[in-house]
């Protein structure tokens, strides 16, 4: 058994002294041949190891380079130095693995840029920034499961490979076992997908919602949390080709229930991170503040990261209809001064500049916009009595834009079939979906939350590539 | 707001009477124009609704068919009937959605076979069997996150789409945006994958382990829980083309730490299901007992489902080396009577019949087999001092076979490079993996648990297609 160690996080939290411990980790710094800062990834805080002068031979000390791995046993003693209450007086010191300082790609002294760190994403976990980001990401993921488990939602794994391309949420990746050379063909020359692995043409899922509805109309309430995909050539700081999505779906629920759940959910997971990752969030707040200093005054955020999260926790989300949102935009100084690049009128699919105006300038808080024109929304959204809007809701967050998209679903078979026909959604492919409306249909609703956008919001990072371990974007699938 | 209801599970648990409640759910049975059994998916138990004779008109009563959805308000009163302590005296009864009894595909009275239910997987959640299976599945998934969160492991989302095909764990599905007609070609006629979405040839992941090791060598301990894929034409009751896998990876750990963690982990999640899903497990135990009655005496299990789970919780897993396992097989009556179909000798990759003998006949409990011949294991497993075995471990479970595969990883750069060369694993594609051995390498270990096999084990189901919502197998990708 090798692993008889105490984690640094636990050691620092206890503040106990006088006993002997073993820690293992990677060298962050080594000063004056005496003070060794060791990090084990459990926290950004290092444990200071004090070596007595002459205690270890020079050949060993020379090997204590950045990212060398060590095993240290010694007594925990009160620290005289600044920044830590305890330290370890080394008794034994073993180097587990060397790290050639000349070749090590992560020279922290040079303050490597986020862009450079993306190129060495296999090593960036060893920086304070990414240590904090991925511990917060973990914490949010756990909070999501905890929230739904407490409420009695069933976690449903909806399929990743799907033959259904009916939802039309975006371009899809093909999944295939067929070769490009000597592809099996039908007599008319088209590809014979009967020869493919699944006996038909298959893709990577863009959403688990339709299958989620099958679960909700049996278990009452379900959620998904899995990867989804878009084969869209969007090279922006907010788009990924592969990302994780959470999609709860609730039977016996209408649009208001849906909004209430989404708001409670977002606050719950932020609160969980605030309670469990305070140090990491404070580090990220500091990082963001420094980044903001580089910006012109006018572009800086009014609130720091912690302040922003507390504000979200302590205030109700603004709830307005799409029609009200358009009115606000039309009345805005920005509109009157012709500052919007895109047209504003009832019926438009609001652009990022419009959403940002509502959220960042007008309300200065998260906004839930409801009841969008049916023509810009999906076929499964419930038609309102006005005949021209649907019971949709989008949640817009400051700095991020759309973070949640949801709706009450159209539970009336005739309406659903009519909408599918109008929008050329093939009813025969979705016979199973329609069956939920044929046999004991119920009012139901649900939403999707893009997990990485949520992590962006909570960590204050600005590029979505920096909150997922190994980002997949056009022309990039490294590691 | 529509959703002001009490869930049936909560209602039955409270046993309180005298107050008014609203329940919503689907009709399971309606007897004597008076007793309505409603299920809302929170539990297999129905709430009995009592309608007074004459209280509702006949036209309404006729619509109370199986799977019609209803909203009922009434007083909770003590029940005179058998099987429930409380029932609801209906005050109002609303049918939310009808269910045409002639067309409804799930006639429970006919005891539909599991095979038939796979064809209507969108409806099978509404049966007691699948209700229980998927609530237990949920519970196991939650327990997995809870276990690792408590231990300070970071949940890492490793990539689903990957350009790396180095692990060689099995055949892979291609992920592509290239067309089959007019595929871009290089001058030599080969496919020009530079034109593909990611600028190279990409596949669906077979394992997140290699990326997991990148996380473990920074955070100390990580785990993955995500979908993995095999494009293998295996049409068996134990194989899926798409399945979920859990892969913890721990720095500063050896093979023994790895075994200890795996055993603790398996017991923890089973205990969680026993504590939280007792009713569902009892239902499944009953189902299994009935299924077993159809079998000849000799093929029946010695233990019932609950007994089996308790046995696993209360006994240490047997730990033997591969060499000991082969010796046991060679000494066995089965071998001497030539009952094994496949050859037994040191160096073989044990077949299912051998594993089952060890687990079900010889030890009658889960067995951890360690230190396999290097030639039948992956390149990344740590070479033992004997030069011919590696520090691998497989956990074999009764009735399931291999449920966990793991190893201590080869942390020594020279050894790893030599093994990769021997096994023709391209080192240049895995430069990032080798970097973890170049910069502060540490002893580390990890394992993979096939989630569906674990669900099979805990639920007592016998076909893996019955424990995942929408199974993907050769020629099948429905829903």
Automatic annotation (TrEMBL), chains A, B:
Domain Aminoacyl-transfer RNA synthetases class-II family profile: 134-471
InterPro entries xrefs: Aa-tRNA-synt_II, aa-tRNA-synth_II, aa-tRNA-synth_II/BPL/LPL, Asn-tRNA-ligase, Asp/Asn-tRNA-synth_IIb, NA-bd_OB-fold, NA-bd_OB_tRNA
Protein known as: Asparagine--tRNA ligase
Keyword Coiled coil on entry: yes
GO molecular function term, any single one: asparagine-tRNA ligase activity
Source organism of this protein record: Pinibacter soli
Taxonomic superkingdom: Bacteria
NCBIfam families: asnS (TIGR00457), PRK03932.1 (NF003037)
The UniProt record lists the keyword Cytoplasm: yes
UniProt family annotation: Belongs to the class-II aminoacyl-tRNA synthetase family.
Cellular localisation: Cytoplasm
Primary residence: cytoplasm
SUPFAM superfamilies: Class II aaRS and biotin synthetases (SSF55681), Nucleic acid-binding proteins (SSF50249)
EC number, UniProt record: 6.1.1.22
Ranges in coiled-coil conformation: 274-301
PANTHER family: ASPARAGINE--TRNA LIGASE, MITOCHONDRIAL-RELATED, ASPARTYL/LYSYL-TRNA SYNTHETASE
Catalyzed reaction equations: tRNA(Asn) + L-asparagine + ATP = L-asparaginyl-tRNA(Asn) + AMP + diphosphate + H(+)
Pfam family, one: tRNA-synt_2
Entry keyword set: Aminoacyl-tRNA synthetase, ATP-binding, Coiled coil, Cytoplasm, Ligase, Nucleotide-binding, Protein biosynthesis
